[in-house]
Amino acid sequence: EVSTDDPETAFCTLANREELNPEEGSIHHCLYQFTRNETLTETNKLLCDVCTQRRCRPKNNIKSEKKYVYTNAKKQMLISLAPPILTLHLKRFQHAGFNLRKVNRHIKFPEVIDLAPFCTAKCKNVAEGNTKVLYSLYGVVEHSGTMRSGHYTAYVKMRAMNNHLPDLVLRGQSQALETEPVKGQWFHISDTHVQPVSVSQVLSSQAYLLFYERLL
Q1: Of 63, 214, 193, 66, nearest to 133 (Cα)?
Q2: How far apart are alpha carbons 23 and 1 in whole angstroms?
Q3: 204 is a domain residue
Q4: Strand 193-197, strand 184-190: pairing
Q5: How far apart, in whole angstroms, are the C-alpha atoms of residue 76 and residue 32?
Q6: What's the number of domains the chain is made of?
Q7: What are the φ and ψ backbone dihedral angles of 174, each rounded to 5 degrees?
Q8: Residues 125, 193: contact at Cβ < 8 Å?
Q9: Phi then psi for 212, rounded to 5 degrees?
Q10: Domain named USP: which ranges (predicted)?
């Protein structure tokens, strides 16, 4: 989608991301890197239709050959619509020569996460004046093993129904005022085995998929 926003505000976020100072090896750092401002130069230059049209205007009634004009540009990926359910998929592999190797490094993730530093300043379903977009963790998928074989398990929080989610899904708006994690009991599920676990055990897991529901 081509945006014609004011260049002065096109790269602005709902909350000041420069104050975030994310810890390396955390989900905040992953999101910060994924949404960083990039400069496109050399072979990554952007094709400029306006510049191309200007260059190809006939001069002195002589038909000119069309030459595409590429220009330096800035690129940034930000969230323009905050979802009711946030799913974060961590890349758990890296190239090692011609092979793929699993990444077993622990990535820190919180019970409540604020997406505001990663949302555009004009996020469509955030009330004007709000500088927080909060989500509460309710599910984690963990993988143990290698790239060739392994086992998937899950951590799930049993909690009361979030009565505000229908408003988010159907109307894209929320009247929720909660800023604390949704209360409930965590369970570890492995095949047919289910047992209660503590929050600390959940937060120390090797997350592969993270599931959050919107609070605010």
Answers
A1: 214
A2: 32
A3: yes
A4: antiparallel
A5: 11
A6: 1
A7: -135, 135
A8: no
A9: -125, 150
A10: 1-215
Cα angle: 209, vertex 31, 94; to 5 degrees: 60
Q: What is the CATH number of the domain that holds 161?
A: 3.90.70.10
d(CA 157, CA 196): 10
Q: pLDDT means per 10 residues in the chain (216 residues)?
A: 63 87 92 91 85 70 69 88 94 80 90 94 86 94 86 93 64 58 92 96 95 90
DSSP tally for the chain: helices H, then strands E: 4, 13
The C-alpha atoms of residue 97 and residue 13 are separated, in whole angstroms, by: 38
Q: pTM of the prediction?
A: 0.81
Query: Does residue 152 lie within any of the structural domains?
Result: yes
Query: For residue 193, what are its two tokens?
Result: 């085995």
Task: Determine the Cα–Cα distance for residues 199 and 146; give it in Å rounded to an integer.
Answer: 26
What are the tokens at 211? 């599931």
pLDDT of residue 203: 96
At residue 138, the 3 state secondary structure works out as strand
The pLDDT, as a whole number, for residue 96 is: 76
